[in-house]
């Protein structure tokens, strides 16, 4: 890697650029040479069978599960740079501030109030004042419809409310990119919609998002592009209208037959 | 039971109980320090420190506390460590309970869901910040009750230093038996005082636990 490549964006440099991502756990190769780009403001869904490597890929983007090969670039800067330990820690902490992540199991901090969950990182990392932090919390919680619960603790919230707070917590760092790993999979069916609505609103605001999901309807209605993964490779990708209705690959067709009965019905 | 005798000697037992309290407080403080250091070592990313932490725990939990005391107090001078009985008692028992506290503290820390630190790291916190702001506050709450168990054991465990002639509660009871020939009364009185200490401490631990409990 030359110095210029980190400082100057070439014309072809994509906003998110994953190059030849490879990940092995010992003998098991979980990601096999995946290359993938996402434009600024684009919303991409990753679908695929359990164990296909969706979470691993998502978690590789902010280096929670470091790749064993390949590069991840965000907005012209390589995230998984090869740096000495100390420098790398500093670099990755800065990069992670720009990438919001939402987990299946929320991972709210149970010892902090909703307000503190949202303000903890900005206060610590951006050195904002208490007044600014409160304004930020109110703004972000209003955005996800959770302002009335600002002084509750996570244990006092429903799953859907927890996830909306978790989204507000991520947004409070003002990220360039949001990653969602099955954000609604742990929710009771009646709570899924309130989280989906928040994500839809983010989409309307042109947040760049990579969404791992099992909800085909949601992917079809919100995402610009769908990526189907199986056994550590991207099998097929394209606009939802193509991937869902006219998939070219046999593996995609088979997966969709199992998971898309509802959607196929409604799409007819 | 000879209540008159009990009334006559109990002031001396109270004095001895003060020594037991001093021993308890000092050994618990030393134990907490050793426990924190031991935990840091056992969770360190350096293999040497992890080994030293594990060795500390298995040596002190794997041998009788009485042997540790004797080794320090009687064996110490042989290798140039001169301690009076009280000092040897504090250091020996403090190191001993510290090994148990190491396991208590480490257990509480590793019981915190890894997703917590992960969520903090995702926001851009460093490893140290994530530990300080997210893992530790939750682990501290979790370790209050089990540390209370260690503390309970330690208060009773101070009785061991009677064997190296520190004039605390158990030693005092033994000494008065020598002059009164009333072992039942003497041990009964000592037992009552231990129960009082244990009950007060137990209530304190329970109060602290309630005080920091999350909604
Ligand atoms: N820490 C790990 N050690 C070993 N193997 C792992 C580890 N994490 C994941 N794997 C393996 O990697 C493969 C991909 O896992 P991953 O979690 O990315 O799948 P996924 O597509 O997200 O599945 P799901 O839909 O069930 O969440 C699986 O075979 C899994 O067993
Ligand atoms: Mg997954």
TrEMBL record, chain A:
Belongs to the ABC transporter superfamily. Keywords: Amino-acid transport, ATP-binding, Cell membrane, Membrane, Nucleotide-binding, Transport. The lineage of its organism: Bacteria, Pseudomonadati, Pseudomonadota, Alphaproteobacteria, Rhodobacterales. This is Polar amino acid transport system ATP-binding protein. It comes from the Bacteria. Residues 13-256 form the ABC transporter domain. It is found in: Cell membrane. GO terms for cellular component: plasma membrane. The keyword Transport applies. InterPro entries: AAA+_ATPase, ABC_ATPase_HisP-typ, ABC_transporter-like_ATP-bd, ABC_transporter-like_CS, MetN_ABC_transporter-like, P-loop_NTPase. GO terms for molecular function: ABC-type amino acid transporter activity; ATP binding; ATP hydrolysis activity. It comes from Celeribacter neptunius. It is a peripheral membrane protein. Pfam families: ABC_tran. SUPFAM superfamilies: P-loop containing nucleoside triphosphate hydrolases. PROSITE patterns: ABC_TRANSPORTER_1, ABC_TRANSPORTER_2. The keyword Membrane applies. Coiled coil: none annotated.
From TrEMBL, chain B:
Residues 13-205 form the ABC transmembrane type-1 domain. It is a multi-pass membrane protein. Its main location: membrane. One of its GO terms (molecular function) is transmembrane transporter activity. Keywords: Amino-acid transport, Cell membrane, Membrane, Transmembrane, Transmembrane helix, Transport. One of its GO terms (cellular component) is ATP-binding cassette (ABC) transporter complex. The keyword Heme does not apply. InterPro entries: AA_ABC_transptr_permease_3TM, ArtM/GltK/GlnP/TcyL/YhdX-like, MetI-like, MetI-like_sf. The chain crosses the membrane at residues 12-39, 51-74, 186-208. It is found in: Cell inner membrane; Cell membrane. This is Polar amino acid transport system permease protein.
């Amino acid at each position: 890697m030359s110095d210029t490549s980190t400082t100057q964006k070439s014309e072809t440099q994509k906003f998110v650029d994953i190059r030849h991502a490879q990940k092995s756990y010992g003998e098991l190769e979980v990601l096999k040479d995946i290359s993938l780009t996402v434009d600024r403001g684009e919303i991409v869904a990753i679908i695929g069978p359990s164990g296909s490597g969706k979470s691993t890929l998502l978690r590789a983007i902010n280096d929670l599960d470091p790749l064993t090969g390949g590069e991840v670039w965000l907005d012209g800067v390589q995230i998984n740079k090869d740096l000495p330990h100390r420098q790398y820690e500093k670099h990755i902490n800065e990069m992670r501030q720009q990438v919001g992540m939402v987990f299946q199991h929320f991972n709210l901090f149970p010892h902090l109030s909703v307000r503190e969950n949202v303000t903890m990182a900005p206060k610590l990392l951006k050195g904002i004042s208490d007044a600014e932090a409160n304004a930020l919390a109110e703004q972000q919680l209003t955005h996800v419809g959770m302002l009335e619960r600002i002084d509750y603790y996570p244990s006092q919230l429903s799953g859907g409310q927890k996830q909306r707070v978790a989204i507000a917590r991520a947004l409070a760092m003002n990220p360039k990119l949001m990653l969602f790993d099955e954000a609604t999979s742990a929710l009771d069916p009646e709570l899924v919609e309130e989280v989906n609505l928040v994500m839809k609103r983010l989409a309307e605001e042109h947040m760049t998002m990579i969404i791992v999901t099992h909800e085909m309807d949601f992917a079809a209605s919100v995402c610009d592009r769908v990526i189907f993964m199986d056994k550590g490779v991207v099998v097929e990708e394209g606009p939802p209208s193509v991937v869902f209705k006219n998939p070219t690959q046999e593996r995609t067709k088979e997966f969709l037959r199992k998971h898309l009965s509802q959607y196929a019905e409604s799409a007819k | 039971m000879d209540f008159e005798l009990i009334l006559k000697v109990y002031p001396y037992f109270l004095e001895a109980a003060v020594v037991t309290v001093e021993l308890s407080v000092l050994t618990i403080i030393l134990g907490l320090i050793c426990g924190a250091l031991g935990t840091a070592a056992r969770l360190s990313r350096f293999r040497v420190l992890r080994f030293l932490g594990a060795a500390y725990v298995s040596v002190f939990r794997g041998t009788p506390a009485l042997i540790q005391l004797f080794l320090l107090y009687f064996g110490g001078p042989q290798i140039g460590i001169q301690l009076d009985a009280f000092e040897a008692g504090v250091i020996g028992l403090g190191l001993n309970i510290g090994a148990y506290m190491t396991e208590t503290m480490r257990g509480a820390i590793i019981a915190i869901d890894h997703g917590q630190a992960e969520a903090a790291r995702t926001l851009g916190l460093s490893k140290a910040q994530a530990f300080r702001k997210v893992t530790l506050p939750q682990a501290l709450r979790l370790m209050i009750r089990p540390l209370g168990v260690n503390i309970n054991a330690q208060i009773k465990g101070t009785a061991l230093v009677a064997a190296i002639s520190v004039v605390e509660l158990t030693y005092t009871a033994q000494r008065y038996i020598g002059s009164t020939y009333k072992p039942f009364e003497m041990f009964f009185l000592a037992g009552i005082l231990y129960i009082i200490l244990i009950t007060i401490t137990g209530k304190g631990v329970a109060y602290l636990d309630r005080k920091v409990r999350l909604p």
